[in-house]
Structures are given as structure tokens and as C-alpha cells.
Amino acid sequence: MRIPRSTLAATAVACATAAAAVAFGPGTAAAGTLSGTLYRDPATAVARWVAANPNDSRTALISSRIASQPASRWLSNFNVGTVQSEVSGYVGAAAAAGQVPALTLYGIPNRDCGGASAGGAPDLNQYQAWVNNIAAGLAGRTTLILLEPDSIALQTCLSANEINARNQALATATRTLKAAGAKVYLDGGHSAWNPAGEAANRLANAGVSSADGFYTNVSNFQSTANETAFGRSVISALSSRGISGKRQVIDTSRNGGAAGDWCGDDNTDRRIGRYPTLDTGDANIDAFLWVKPPGEADGCRYAAGSFQPDLAASLATGAPLPPTTTPPTTPPTTPPTTPPTTPPTTPPNTPQPGGACGAAYVTTSTWQGGFQGKVTVQAGSTAITSWSVSWTLASGQSITQVWSGNLSVSGSTATVRNAAYNGSLAPGATTEFGFIASGSATTPSLTCTA
Question: Where would I find the Rhodanese domain in this sequence (predicted)?
Fold first, then answer.
């Protein structure tokens, strides 16, 4: 099994005890301890590819079957100094959407035993500092966290002392994240790897008694039926060791076709599996998730974690359209807020089509401590081949994430330049970029240069 190296941020919603069902917004779970609608990040690699390639013959298929769906976001860069703000911003965006995001932490030292996804923290002390900052970013908001794929099932490169040290680190990380409001699941491997009894032993040694359960099949291809049966065996084995009440999460991102070799880069018989949902219909299973984002490579043919449209199209071929969510028929008990009749004192920026380019800004969502913004860039009366947009950051603001553009910051001046795919605009044509920032939302004065 190999894991994607894609990076980003975190997850969030509301809190309850592990023994009770936890509600995360609209929706009702038929089983498990979670309910609600999973969060779909609008800036995933697949979403960016779809936006940049509207005329590609594969776009419609990839958009409808993959880009339309939520997938777990990976924290795989060891970035102690910035991870708290990344997590805080992403948690806020998810909370503002009223949805449930999933976050995969992937920074344990000696991860993947030095394989295609090697890396992680330099040592376990620095790893704990990284986890502490992630927990701080959650700010008490309940988060669905998949902790360190491969860390328990894959230990062939570790000595007995190193295994013990890793187990202690995972147990400490679990308690830290639980104290911050997270729902935490540990690495259970998959049904064709370690036997259920061995998986249960390893989970017990790594502190699963403090976690909500375990996940299986991450980045692999085992059928949901096999994983469900395996999960029941692991739960039974844990119970025989005095550890009860644990539940399973299954990665269904590419288990709708053949099983076999771990690497999916060269295989055309793989398919996406069950669409992501918290409505599992099984009391032992909290979620079917797309932990491995479909279309991201394993590292044998392409760079690990890189998005490859041919892989995505192959996975989506023959898949049915995803189910649609029916809005509730019961009206809300609280009437919607009436928009203010007083116009804003500061008018929004608008593109100036008479010049080389113009830019318009809108705040798309806000939360305590952060906000998300969108900027529309418009060419003037002549075509342009590149553009940049600059503005002055207000006091307390810092940008934690940008998509569809390249960010640079000098002092209090933020500048976003076009990405490789959206710099050329015909006369009057537009493109967009977005960002997540900490601090209070303001309406900046934008300067567009072409």
C-alpha cells in the first residue's frame, strides 16, 4: 500500500460523546456514530484540473463522478510553524459550509518505511509538536481524523524499540486530538494484509482504546464486503482484549474493480467504489470515505500524490452517477435572516475592462478567526498573457492557502500571479482565484497588472 503526498488542511463540526451519535448538520445516519453531509473542498487537485480543462474529452466524466464528491484532505508536509493556521482556516471553511470534512494526518517519522511516500517529521518529539499545533487549530471543534496510514500495519522497517516508541507517539497523538474534539481512527491495514487478530494486537498496542476506532483499505483495492467482514473480525478481537465500542471507517475510493497489487498507476481494471457517505447502514461502520483521492498516483509510474487525469478517467469509467441529496421538507424553526436594507459603505471592487485588466473581490464565507475570499480577474479591451493582483493585508490578516494562482507576500502586500493554465485571457474574458486567510474579513483595494 502506498499513500498520496498531497497536502492541505483540516476538518470540523460539532461535538458529542463517543457513546452517542454525533450530528454534523443536515442528514440522518442510518447507523454508526456520525451523521451529516461530508465536506467537499472546492480547491482539490481534481477540481482545479476540471476547471482548467473544460474542453478535454475526459472532463465531464471526471467532474460528475469524482470532482463532485468529498475526499479526505491530507496533512503530509511537516510544517510546525504554519500547520495551526492551515487547520484553523480549513476547519472554519468546513464549519461555514455546515458539512463534515475528513482529515488524514501523515507525518510520522519514517513513514512508508522509506518507500514512494517517504518523509515525515525528523523525530517523534517534533512530531508531537506538529500534532499539538494541529489540535490547537481545531479549537475544540469535532473533527474526523484518520491518523497516520501505514503506521501500524507496516512496521517491517522498525526495530522492537522503534515500534514501542511509535506506539507511544500514536497513543499520545490520539489523546491530544481527542481532547481537541476530534473523532480519531487508527491504521487497521486491510483484509488482505495482517490477520484480524494481529491487526487487533497492533491497534491495542498503539492506543486504540482511546480512539473512536480504526480505518481500513486506505489506498488499496479490497472490496467493501471483504473489508466489512475483516472489520467485524477486528472488532471482535479487540472486544476479547477488553476493548469495546470501536468502529470502522472504510476507504472506498477505488475498490469497485479488481483487487491485487497495491500500485494503481498502471492498472486499468480499478474503479471507484461506493460514493462517500456517513449514512452507512451498519452500526459497526462510521463512514465510507474516499481517503485516497481518486486520480492521485501511488508513486510507481507517476510521482506519489500527483493528480493524473488518465488515472481518474479510468477509475470513473462505467461508474453510475452519484446519488443526490433531497432537501428536508420540514421548514426551519427559525426564519432566515432578512438582508439589511442599508447598502454597504464600501462598494465592491469591479473589473475595469477599459484597462489591461481589472479585479473584483467577494468574501465567500467567514468564521471566527478567518474567512475565504474569491477574486475575479478580467482582461480589458485587449488580450493578455499574464496577470497579477496585489492588495494590502489588513492588520491581523495572513493568507494560509491560495488556489488557481501563485502567492507571494512582501511585508503587508499580498500578490497573486496567474497559474500556468489561466494567464492568457481574451479581451473581456475572466478567470478566478481563491484564498483562505486568518483574521477578520475586509474588502481590499485591488490592483491588477497585466
Answer: 171-202
Strand locations in 261-412, DSSP E? 285-289, 357-367, 370-379, 388-392, 398-403, 405-410
Sequence ranges of the domains in the chain? 37-316, 357-449
Of 155, 138, 157, the C-alpha closest to 201 is 155
Q: Could you tell me the three cell numbers for 139?
A: 479549537
* Residue 335: Cβ-neighbour burial (10 angstroms; 0-12, 13-18, 19+): exposed
The letter for the amino acid at 115 is: G
* DSSP calls for 111-166: GGGGSTT----SSHHHHHHHHHHHHHHHTT--EEEEE-TTTTT--TT--HHHHHHH
Q: Name, in order, each residue with C-beta under 8 angstroms of 139's C-beta and a sequence gap of 6 or more.
A: 88, 91, 180, 369
The CA distances from residue 416 to 9, 330, 385, in Å, are: 20, 44, 15
- Distance spanning both ends of the chain, measured CA to CA: 46
Residue 334's contacts (CB-CB under 8 Å, 6 or more residues apart) are none
Specify the pLDDT at position 268.
66
Burial tier of 333 (Cβ tally within 10 Å: 0-12, 13-18, 19+): exposed
Choosing from 41, 150, 187, 298, the catalytic residue is 150
Q: pLDDT tens-digit profile of 116-157?
A: 788 899 999 999 999 999 999 888 777 799 999 999 999 999
Domains 37-316 and 357-449 share a fold: no
- Count CB atoms within 10 A of the CB of residue 381: 10
Residues in a beta bridge with 417: 388, 406
Lowest pLDDT segment from 235-244, 267-276, 438-447: 267-276
User: Does the domain spanning 357-449 belong to CATH 2.60.40.290?
Assistant: yes
Lowest mean pLDDT segment, chosen from 43-57, 364-378, 395-409: 364-378
pTM (two decimals): 0.69
Please state, in angstroms and rounded to a whole number, the distance separating the CA atoms of residues 126 and 137.
Answer: 17
Pairing of strands 370-379, 357-367: antiparallel
Count of beta carbons in the 10 Å neighbourhood of residue 106: 28
Amino acid (1-letter code) at residue 59: T
Let me know if 286 is a catalytic residue. Answer: no
Mean of the pLDDT values across residues 329-345? 34
Q: Is 71 helix (H, G, I), strand (E, B) or coil?
A: coil
Q: What is the CATH number of domain 37-316?
A: 3.20.20.40
